[in-house]
Design brief:
Elements (H helix, E strand, L loop, with lengths): L3 E2 L11 E2 H21 L25 H9 L21 H6 L6 H6 L18 H7 L16 H12 L9
Parallel strand pairs: 1-2
Helix pairs in contact: 2-6
Bound molecules: heme C (HEC).
Length: 174
Amino acid sequence: MVRCSIGRVRARGNRVRPCFTYAATALALVALALAPACGTIEPEVGERLSACVDADSNPAVKVSFKDQIRPIMAGKVPGPTPCGMCHSPVAGTMEGFNATGFDIRKLASVRKGGRNTSDDIIVPGKPCESAIVQKLKGTYGGARMPKGGPYWNAEQLQLMIDWIAEGASGADDE
Ligand code: HEC
C-alpha cells in the first residue's frame, strides 16, 4: 500500500512521504511509457496526416489525371520532389523502383502498384483505402512520399483524393 500524507509530512520516523513525490514519480513513468510512441514520428518518415475523408470535395468539377496529377508527379509543378526521380526503372536513382517495383511512368503501371501495395494502390471511389493516398500522407507505413520531401501540399493531396473519389479514370498511357 502506498502511504502518503497530503500537506503535512510526519517528521518522526520519516516513513510517510508527501503525496506529490508519488505523483511526480507516476508522471515520470507515464512520460517514459509515452516516449516510444512519440518516437515513431521520425523526420525521414515525414509528418503523418491521418485524417481522411472519402468524399469528393468538388463533385461539380472532374479532376484529370493527365492534366492535374501527372504534372505534380513529374515535377512540373514547383515544390514536391518528382516521383519519377525514384520510381522509374530507366531514370533517376531508381531507389523506390528497386525497393518495391512501383513504376510511376504510365497510369497503367501506377495502377499495378508495387510489391506491398499491389491492388490496394488505387481503390476507385475509396481514396482513404488507396495506398497511394496513404503513402502521400505518411499513414501506410514506411516513408511518406515523396521520400524525404518536400511533400504534396493540402491542395495537391485533395486533387489525388478527388480523382480517386470520382472513380480514378484515365487512359493507360497517361
Ligand atoms: C527519394 C526517392 C523517392 C521519391 C522521390 C519517391 N519515392 Fe516512393 N518510395 C521510395 C522508396 C525507397 C520506397 C520503399 C520504402 C518505403 O515504402 O518507404 C518507396 C515506396 C513507395 C510506395 C510503396 C510501393 C509498395 O508497393 O511498397 C509507393 C506507393 C510510393 N513510393 C509512391 C511514391 C509517389 C506517389 C511518389 C511521388 C509523389 C514517390 N513515391 C516518390 C522512394 C521514393
